[in-house]
Amino acid sequence: MADALFVVLKKVALSLGEGALTKIASEVVEAAPILTDFEHSVKQIEGELSVMQAFIGQVRAQKATDRAFDAWLDQVRDVAHELEDIIDEYAYLTVQAANTGSFFKRKFHQVRNFAAWQKLPTRISQVEARIRRLAEMRNQYGISVGEIDRSDKLQIPNQLSVSDSAYLTDNSEIVGHADEIGILTQWLLEEKQDRTLIAIIGMGGLGKTTVVSSVYKNQKIRRTFDCHAWVTVSQTYQVEELLREIISQLIEQRASMASGLMTMSRMRLVEKIQSYLRDNKYLIVLDDIWDKDAWLYLNHAFVGNNCGSKVLITTRRKDVCYLAAHNRIIELKTLNYAESWELFCKKAFCASKDNICPMNLRSLAEKIVYKCQGLPLAIVIIGSILSYRELDAQEWSFFYNQLSWQLANNPELSWISSVLNLSLDDLPCHLRSCFLYCSLFPEDHKIKRKLIAKLWIAEGLVEERGDAATMEEVAEHYLVELTHRSLLQVIERNASGRARTFLMHDLVREVTSVTAQKEKFAVIHGTAGVAHVSQKARRLCVQKVVDSQNYLASSHLRSFILFDTVVPSSWIYDVSSHFRLLRVLCLRFTNIEQVPDVVTELYNLRYLDISYTKVKWISPSFSKLVNLQVLDLRFSYVKELPLEITMLTNLRHLHVCVVHDIQERSLNCFSDTKFRGNICGLKNLQALHTVSTNKDLVLQLGNLTMMRSLSVMKVRQSYIAELWNSLTKMPNLSRLLLFASDMDEILNLKMLRPLPDLKLLWLAGKLDGGTVPSLFSKFEKLTLLKMDWTGLKKDPIRSFSHMSTLVNLGLRGAYGGEHLSFCAGWFPKLKYLQLADMEHLSCILMEDGTMIGLHHLELIGLRNIRAVPKGIKYIRTLHQMFLTDMPMEFVESLRGSASHIVQHVTNVHIFDSSDSEAVNYFIFWPHLSKKYGSGAAKYDPTAE
């Protein structure tokens, strides 16, 4: 595919642009002629592949079901992968040669690797020959760009059947979407003179066509309009064909005959439609629009005649639906479980009275319905197929266990994969590769924005756009585009409103993973749909380990992600020995105590995640990992980093943190990781968490101008000015965690310059004078503020009240007074409030009109508060309260005389922090899920 070429062409450009030949010429004299020829050949291949990529992008939509084209593409993919192997092998050998230490060691490596150097010319010649052969095959089998056959309006036969089926669905068969149908009906009947454009958006298979057809065929609505037409646009539309179809339907309704339509120009067709519609109230439906360009000519054709005309469009893409007025957009959601069950029973048990599910099939039917996750298309098709089968539990069980295989191979289910694959095939090369990567995650896994962005970048799937944007920002733009195309769903946003967590519909994931396996892009091992792992698989996600590891003995792997957290550490060490050209290694939550020895030989490694493991030590030989971009050691036992870490100049994210107190109720809840050596060379570093400061380090931090997120511990007043001066040299710094060295250290921030672009500030330690520093008045962009053990003497809430953007506010042991007041109008965007461990606090005043959007309130260890704050009754948005270590009088009041104050709060949780089970359930597990997604659920913090 063109996306495979996209990846390899990026690598070719990098390999030729880094001056690697010059760097190692003096080190590998024997290989110099080989390298010169290599560079020349690769440049020639680069040109050929660039043309091939452009050709595939141009012709792919026309050849969607052409088996010869598919076979040819598979050959192209193999050639691209072979070239990628050569490029990565080349990088591996050059780094080995250039970074070997002593003279004797250098000579040893030259001898050991010279055979590999000698193979490069032969391998590159073979690639050149295969590319020439591919060009010949393309001509031999007539694979070329040509006119679309107008007699075949849709390249995917089943798409028409699905569209027709949805259009012809009887209203009595529709389940769910009642509210959406009601709103749509209301909009169509409203007496509004201007032409109105209405959009219905949602992922493939949600029932957009069914919903629209139900109102389009409504006789009351049809009588409201003088004329109407329905056309399916699809991905392979031609403007002239759409215009002719619209004219045919309109003229047919006027009992008139069209004349000369087939020879009319595009402009003449537009004029003809204008003349028909100028004096009529019309209803036009444009079903399945894939891009805004389709609307350009149609917009001119559908005249704004002030007759109350309506145009309905259905689409999977946000940019298309935004053509409509913002208050005339309906976004369809999946069916809830009750609706899904009703629809399934209607289809699967249509032959029985009242569509009742037999008891012997109940549990299996429920599993199948859950698997469909509210997608009507899947429910209808699977239910219809099962309606023709015996009501036998064994047969149904076999069908369910083979559902992944069925989706890929059963022609009866091809509608599902065809409809869902339309969105995948519509993606450009760079987005397609990134979306295929998302299918590596397990079912129902919450995909974290920061994690997937790092993985994409490490794999080379994200394009660089110069200094205007970081690759992380580009990756985030990719995620936005995937959500706008209805391929990923945003399920959680951070305090700034940015998408934090995404979810892929399980059936979309199933279909996408089949495509990923077919194209040798990636394989998920340990699921029912995968019988074996191709030796040529580029990426491997192991969800369940099997006894044999032969499938891992492949030099082709670029990503290895392990989700099976109970696998023995010996298995991991054995498997790791097979890796050579790996770029991504994720061993998060595994039971290892040391980093596998082979890791330091993985010169192409970009991403290494050994967080939440028992690893205690990082070897100095990590200095060899010159390409490493991400090193994640969070929740490991690493307390000190070796000096050699400072040699990893490509590091972008360094996370090392030992957590002592998951409840964060002490100043030393995090460890102070020691960072030895001079860090000035880490100029690409964007995130550093957490590091113990000293006089030298705070001065060196000023050289890290790319820094965006920083956590510093053990801060002393003696160098706070130098530290702050370094922070002001970081123009992009948006997140800062600053912890004092101990409870006796007093930090004076009064004379320091503000950091006006901060969005997150966590300050722990006593402040001079017990007052909020004046620089806080300049923090106008903060969305999250936490202050711990700051020793404030006056009510600090007024000092924060100007922070209108604040979403999360936490005060822990921060204030020594008795009263806190939240006045009307303050904190309009606050959603999360935590007040903890303030021993003298006895009264919390909340006026009507304060914190009007608060969702979550935590009160922890406030031993002097006896009465429930009366103002809680005004905060109607509050739906969750966590009460930890609160006085017995408070709890009794909450359950008795003050219960009316919190009667609108859906969830009130009361527990004691000494209850380890409750702590894990309410604090530890939510923390893991928030940081890492649902895949962290198997981690056992109590395991020895």
UniProtKB/TrEMBL annotation:
It comes from Setaria viridis (Green bristlegrass). It comes from the Eukaryota. This is NB-ARC domain-containing protein. Residues 440-510 form the Disease resistance protein winged helix domain. Keywords: Coiled coil, Leucine-rich repeat, Nucleotide-binding, Plant defense, Repeat. Residues 20-103 form the Disease resistance N-terminal domain. Residues 181-351 form the NB-ARC domain. One of its GO terms (biological process) is innate immune response-activating signaling pathway. The lineage of its organism: Eukaryota, Viridiplantae, Streptophyta, Embryophyta, Tracheophyta. GO terms for molecular function: ADP binding. Residues 556-866 form the Disease resistance R13L4/SHOC-2-like LRR domain. PANTHER family: DISEASE RESISTANCE PROTEIN RP, OS07G0186500 PROTEIN. The keyword Nucleotide-binding applies. Belongs to the disease resistance NB-LRR family. Pfam families: LRR_14 (PF23598), NB-ARC (PF00931), Rx_N (PF18052), WHD_DRP (PF23559).
